[in-house]
Design goal:
This protein has ten helices and 23 strands. The strands form five sheets. An eight-stranded mixed sheet has the order 6-7-5-16-17-18-15-20. A six-stranded mixed sheet has the order 9-3-2-13-23-22. A four-stranded mixed sheet has the order 1-12-11-10, with no helix packed on it. Helix 1 runs parallel beside helix 10. The longest helix has 18 residues. It starts with a strand and ends in a 17-residue tail after the last helix. It binds flavin-adenine dinucleotide.
């Protein structure tokens, strides 16, 4: 019989940004917590993403969650005791001239966002060129969010994990949970090497792997693993503190970039490739990189001559409606979900962690969670 190695109030399956930030905020509330991670914390989507800390472009109903996260990002270094390279240089969405209808959509979005506490400034014409002279001639208008920016994804989840550990959380790496079930009052989680973990509450934050984990509790969620394409250029003098992206209904045009203070430009967007969670692989397809570069040069032609020094991708789990699953299980008391962030979980990550901790600790939250209800997959 296997010895029970850990009993805690909450066991978290998956040590990405969601799991690690939830652990940190649970410990702040004095709740004992164990994070179980197959590999090292923050190595999957949370550590391989682009690093956009942007609120605009999200569904309006998600802005309260994004605002909560934004407040945490602003104080992250002090809160966590380490630098996550959060740079509040602003975030800009632009539309191209061949889609003039997008200007109206931007205005409409800005009006609704303002009601949710997100102030966006619409900029076009000479003013746009004066303020952002590096934008290409194809750019027609921009929506500017001054209080957003970007951060370093490689640092964020590990910083939350270290801070959670300092508060007393057990961060258990190299521990793949291969099965979990409810046994009386407690859940029993079985690791690949046979160790057992028990807790009366379980939070599933297993990213692209979470659909299968939820299925252990008869609550399967279809998750499609995909791989956004990332590219880094050689460093050039730091000149662009904001993060910039294209607003378009065409996936192929949805390119974005940011410059890190060391000078490299990080590019992202355009077509996503498939990814392979069972093999822990997300291959970069060269054609996706080429397509990305084609549209990036429309956005900022000055980037075109820069040498590409590195490309990579990561494994991200997408739901069919591109919305996450967040909230309590509909079937098993004590079970909670926070997964399926569909390519846009980095910014909201700390807000997800704080909201899930609040929900677990108090049974309620003011953050609207109805759109993320797991029951929408019942049909
Ligand atoms: C290339 C790329 C670019 C992106 N760009 C952005 C962006 O700019 N802005 C933005 O907001 N979002 C972006 N995203 C999305 C964002 O990164 C994710 O939504 C977010 O990181 C998801 O965090 P997570 O903790 O849910 O998942 P993950 O970080 O994937 O963590 C899940 C963890 O669970 C672990 N796990 C799985 N199964 C088990 C098990 N059985 N036992 C133990 N551990 C398990 C995994 O090993 C993994 O570490 C991007 C994603 C990618 C891949």
């Amino acid at each position: 019989m296997n010895a029970v190695t850990t009993h805690s109030d909450v066991a978290i399956i998956g040590g990405g940004l969601m799991g690690c930030s939830a652990a940190f905020f649970l410990r702040q509330r004095g709740i004992s917590v164990t994070v179980l991670e197959t590999d090292k914390v923050g190595r999957q989507a949370s550590g391989t993403n682009f690093g956009n800390v942007r609120r605009q472009g999200r569904p309006i109903f998600q802005l309260p969650l994004a605002n909560r996260a934004s407040a945490i990002w602003r104080q992250a270094n002090a809160l966590l005791g380490s630098d996550v390279e959060y740079l509040q240089g602003g975030h800009m969405r632009v539309c191209f001239r061949d889609r003039p209808g997008n200007v109206g959509a931007m205005e409409d979005y800005a009006a609704k966002a303002r009601e949710e506490g997100l102030d966006l400034e619409l900029i076009s014409g000479n003013m746009l060129r004066q303020r952002f002279p590096w934008l290409g001639p194809e750019v027609l208008a921009a929506s500017w969010s001054p209080l957003d920016g970007h951060a370093n994804p490689r640092l964020a989840a590990p910083a939350f994990a270290r801070a959670a550990a300092r508060l007393g959380a057990a961060i258990v790496e190299d521990t793949k949970i291969v099965h979990a079930s409810k046994q009386g009052e407690d859940f029993e989680l079985v690791a690949e090497d046979g160790r057992l973990f028990r807790a009366p509450v379980v939070l599933i934050t297993a990213g692209a792997w979470a659909g299968k984990v939820a299925a252990w509790f008869d609550e399967p969620v279809p998750i499609t693993p995909r791989a956004p394409t990332m590219t880094v250029t050689e460093p050039v003098p730091f000149a662009i503190p904001c993060s910039v992206g294209v607003m378009t209904p065409e996936e192929i045009e949805t390119v974005y970039f940011r410059q890190v203070e060391r000078g490299n430009l990080v590019l992202g967007g355009s077509t996503r490739a498939p990814s392979y969670p069972d093999e822990y692989r997300a291959w970069v397809m060269p054609q996706n990189t080429l397509t990305q570069l084609e549209h990036i040069r429309r956005l900022a032609p000055g980037l075109a001559p820069l040498q590409i020094i590195r490309v990579w991708s990561g494994i991200e789990g997408y739901t069919d409606d591109y919305l996450p699953v967040m909230g309590p299980s509909a079937k098993v008391p004590g079970l909670f979900h926070a997964f399926g962030f569909s390519g846009s979980g980095f910014q909201i990550g700390p807000g997800v962690g704080e909201t899930m901790a609040e929900l677990i600790a108090t049974g309620a939250t003011d953050i609207p969670l109805a759109p993320y209800d797991v029951r929408r997959f019942d049909k």
